[in-house]
Amino acid sequence: MDDIDQHIVSCLVVDGRASFREIGEIVGLSAPAVKRRVDRLQASGVISSFTARLDQGALGWNTQAFVNVTFRNNVSPARMQEALAPIPEVVAAYTVSGDSDLVVHIRASNMQHFEQALERLRALDSVDRTESTIVLSTLIDRPSPVDRH
């Protein structure tokens, strides 16, 4: 990936609906050249998908938390993923180093909804304990740490 590819990716992160012509004007290439590069970035897996960023609060998902999860036994990441997948409030999950085994990002409509999701998480086989941190406000929410020109 060269500097032009990084610049193209930055443009797409800012506005995924930008046309190849618009991106080309910014990066100094023709629209067909931008399209070829975007196609190559997709084929190589650098760009995995195009998506819309949603305002979760406007959709009614006003409560979010990060939950540290510790398991009783040695649980593989694949089993953790399989166990979490049916809980729709889980929007992301990360295996981590440190005292806990997993950090789970939960979004819910309100505190009661969060508590219900947390109870489903706690009921998973081998969960020993959880520790929740409720998000009060979001200060920075970047789509990706790409080079911004």
TrEMBL record:
Residues 1-62 form the HTH asnC-type domain. One of its GO terms (cellular component) is cytosol. One of its GO terms (biological process) is response to amino acid. Keywords: DNA-binding, Transcription, Transcription regulation. Pfam families: AsnC_trans_reg, HTH_AsnC-type. GO terms for molecular function: sequence-specific DNA binding. PANTHER family: LEUCINE-RESPONSIVE REGULATORY PROTEIN (PTHR30154), TRANSCRIPTIONAL REGULATORY PROTEIN (PROBABLY ASNC-FAMILY)-RELATED (PTHR30154:SF45). This is Lrp/AsnC family transcriptional regulator. The lineage of its organism: Bacteria, Bacillati, Actinomycetota, Actinomycetes, Nakamurellales.
